[in-house]
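sry for the spam today, last one i promise. struct tokens for design, 79 residues
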């Protein structure tokens, strides 16, 4: 028997055993439970997170500019 044939047969038998074992059902059940759990959480995608981070950075920059302008106006008014 050729070694490649032997290993191919062995791999096929192992794959068949795994497909017919309870481990496959456990994997499906765990994936299903995790999907349901994640669906209950209030999660956002990475893209949404990045967009919100950019919005926050712009808002922070505007706030800093407005604070500087306000300080300048207050300084002029105090003279």
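last one done:
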């Amino acid at each position: 028997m050729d070694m490649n044939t032997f290993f191919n047969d062995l791999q096929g038998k192992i794959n068949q055993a795994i497909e017919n074992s309870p481990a496959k059902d456990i994997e499906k059940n765990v994936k299903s439970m995790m999907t349901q759990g994640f669906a209950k959480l209030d999660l956002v995608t990475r893209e949404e997170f990045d967009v919100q981070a950019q919005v926050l950075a712009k808002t922070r920059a505007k706030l800093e500019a407005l604070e500087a302008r306000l300080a300048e106006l207050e300084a002029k008014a105090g003279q």
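The chain has two domains: 1-42, 44-79. ok im logging off now
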